[in-house]
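User: quick one, fold this
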Amino acid sequence: MSNLGRNSWDAQDDESPKAHAAFQAYLELGSNRTVAGVGKRLAKSRQLVDRWAQKYAWAQRAAAYDRHMATTLQTAKEAALVPLAADWAARQTALREAEWKMSEALLQQATTLLQLPAELLRPTYRDVAALADLASKLGRLASRMETDRKAVQGPNGEPLFDVDQMTDAELLAWIAGEKTDTPNE
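Assistant:
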């Protein structure tokens, strides 16, 4: 019988059952495997185990077995991750959709508040600006855009002014169009 089609760690054609059992014991020792360890474990002479190890190329066969097991383990790990990746992709899509809807609702609320006369507006213009900023951040998150922007930017991306540094009066004047110069200068 030929060894073709068999794995190198399977019993070889001329390998006795005792010699193959010793090789199996060698494999089971894992990273701590030694020929001496097999001899002690099986109560066999060191010379006999050495002869089997040389004749049947235990070190090479064990290395092939280790590579096979590492590949098998990696394949199993990757296969286990596939459903998890699909679950996380679905969660991300659902979260992006929820953030987008919330962004739209918050922008609508901010727009409605800005249309109220100042004397009826309970929240301050700073509150409305914060609401608009939150809506923008949620929309940007949902759209996978940058969210880290605090300053109003000019055409070349340079900051014109920082809304967080403006007083309510400055914000109100700027929103009403009464102030055309940029605040914070």
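User: anything notable?
Assistant: The beta strands are 151-153, 159-162.
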